[in-house]
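re: that complex we talked abt at group meeting.

here r the seqs, copy pasted straight from the sheet so there may be weird spacing, ignore it
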Amino acid sequence: MTTAILPSAAAMSATAPALSASDTRPPRGVLPGFGISLGFTLSYLSLLVLIPLAALFLRVAGLGPAGIWHELGSPRVLHALGLSFGGALAAAAINSVFGTLIAWTFVRYEFPLKKIFHAMIDLPFALPTAVAGIALTALYSEHGWLGAPLAQLGIKVAYTPLGVIIAMVFIGLPFVVRTLEPVLEEFEPQFEEVAATLGASRRQTIARVIFPTLVPALLTGTALAFARAVGEYGSIIFIAGNLQNISEIAPLLIMIRLDEFNYGGATVIAAAMLILSFAILFGINVLQAWSRRHG
Amino acid sequence: MARRYRSALSDPAAARWLLIAVTLGFLGVFLLLPLVIVFVQAFLQGVGTYWRALADADTRAAIRLTLLTAAIAVPLNTLFGVAAAWTVAKFEFPGKNLLTTLIDLPFSVSPVISGMVFVLLFGAQGWFGPWLSEHDIKIVFALPGIVLATTFVTFPFVARELIPLMQAQGTEEEQAAMTLGAGGLRTFWHVTMPNIRWGLFYGVLLCNARAMGEFGAVSVVSGHIRGFTNTLPLHVEALYSDPGEYSAAFAVSSLLALLGFVTLMLKNFLEWRHGDELAALRGKG
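got the structure back, here u go
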């Protein structure tokens, strides 16, 4: 909060109330434009995001408990939700392990082509998801570069839940690496030196000194990767093959319900996804606060 | 003792090389191969087929629709991002944390749901559906719906880059300008803008990449009519589901991959060249 009061005309505008000696309220700030920018921000946010999302929940509420259960309780819906959330958890777990190793390697070591590989980490942010989807399918299909050798080992990826998880790993990887890198870069080597002089082995230093400082950022990155994977559509549907009760994800089932003009069914699945994601993200936030206190 | 001290400070060479191998292997399989296979499949049936796919009338219509959609959605969200960042970073008010959380909300909403909410509002069975059809206004399955869905999905990009940046910069420079007699707009253009231009460009870059590449949200509100309501990513899907057009699907994909590639180059250039000014953004993905 700034307290300087400037004698500028603009600062005396209605949005930044001028203070007289008798006025003891803290100043809103002396810069102009608070009213108009807050007004624009709130209207735009409400019109584009909040009212449409509210419409969704109102539509669900209109179905009543019996109607909601009728749409939600079918094995097909429960399987799709289970695959989206279970797959996203598995992919986030894989990304938390490999993302940590990758961030560590880029921050600590030098190796050839490092800059090019480092630039590639954000590719899943930049490559349109439909392109990623058909590229992954081409790679992992029965005759694909990776699918053919895997098939010889008896592992089928395309058109199975495994394919869904592979696409989710692809889309979530940059979240973990990008969240961990700045924390690792700022880590002071003195702590490692102290641990070493006190007789800690390298393994003990990593497990007891370095890793605990990474936990909050690791949780943030993993949560972001998870949230993205749960709702992901474009990069998954091609490799998933969308077999009912096998590799059909929840966003695709919403799409199918909409195509059948079953808006009630679509909104119930959507509301379930939103509520579950927010509950899990909230849980991770609590866990993160706990690990900051006890880290 | 000396040897033990050294081994406790740095990782053994074997562990180092193992980690480097795991990193390169993982990135190679998960990131490099998908990018390479797009171009390999695109040119599989020769350069002639590739050019025919790109010169096709439906492809050109899809390119125009994608450019038009981005040309509306990106400036809208840029304007919003600057206004939101100005509000949140330069002023104190109750509910500020809630506002910041709500701005990020679209990131945790599935793209399919982002598109669906507009069908619920403006579709034939939606709230405004009957009124819209009476007045012969088409939103869903037409350009306005595609623009709305794209704007929803790309909503937070500019705001979330600018908010931490402008918060880190504080308000002293603007206050000084106003003490010296500059007006509000002049202060914004000559003091704030030069400070945030690279962060703004960074946000616009990511916003644009997502706007042009968005698939799920647009898929819900598009009528999937080739040559009319198919954006480039939807055109890729349409070609891909046609067995005779497999290579054409990858040819059109290569355009989008190129967009992704250019975005990555610019993003890395910005981080390398203007890293100090963007410092507040690091770790924000």
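couple things i noticed - Chain A is about 75% helix and 0% strand. Chain A has a mean pLDDT of 87.
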